[in-house]
Amino acid sequence: MATTRGRQRDFAALEARRMEAARLFARHVSQHEVARQLGVSVTAAHRWFHAWQTQGRPGLKAAGRAGRKPRLDRAALSRVERALLQGAPAHGFATDLWTLPRIATLIKRLTGVQFHPGHVWYLLRALQWSVQRPVRQARERNEAAIAQWTRTGWPRVKKTPAVGARGSSSRTKADSRITPSSAAPGRRGASRRS
């Protein structure tokens, strides 16, 4: 089932389709035939027919935008975006990291409109912003010391197999030879001489 969620509807095209239905109704075309020709449901054609009968063509005019009116207009969103580009410290936050609660606070300060932090993400997507996660590094990170250790310390601790030695999957390389002194008493043939 096709939906219009997430994309803009063409209100002019929808109105033009309803006006075409009015033209067909005026020619005494049945509701079923109008629905078939325009590719709509019979219920929609029935609603249009009754609106056309009671109000004429003005009854089929577009009602305007669909859904609730946005709480922030385009100018307010532009002000919010300019403030975001200035950075968080410019607005009194300790770090330069924008979080959804911080942005909700900023919007409240700038526009007087309060949004839940979870809804702020929809506004950011409308502004074509994306999630950015900071790279975590220690504050005491010393790049020169790390480079020095990589050159000198790492080769010392890096394990390399001995040349020509057979590998072992055992964590303890036990010697498999049993000597006569370690053989259990009373068991013959348990020792092996090399």
Task: Explain what you see.
- There is one protein chain.
- This protein is mainly alpha-helical and 194 residues long.
- It has seven helices and no strands.
- α1 (11-26) packs antiparallel against α2, α1 packs across α3 and α4 (74-86) packs across α5 (100-111).
- The longest helix has 16 residues, at 11-26.
- The radius of gyration is 39 Å and the shape is elongated.
Describe, in short, the structure shown.
Helix content is 45%, strand content 0%.
User: Uncertain runs with pLDDT below 50, 5 residues or more?
Assistant: none
Could you give the order of the helices and strands?
A: HHHHHHH
What integer is the average pLDDT? 81
Please count the beta strands (DSSP E, at least 2 residues each). Answer: 0
Helix % is 40-55%
**What is the tally of helical segments?**
7
Radius of gyration: 39 Å
Structure classification: mainly alpha
Beta-strand portion reads under 5%
Describe the largest sheet: none
- The end-to-end span amounts to 82 Å
The backbone outline, from C-alpha atoms, is elongated
Pick out its properties.
194 residues; mainly alpha
Give the arrangement of secondary structure elements.
Blueprint: H1 11-26, H2 31-38, H3 42-55, H4 74-86, H5 100-111, H6 117-126, H7 143-157
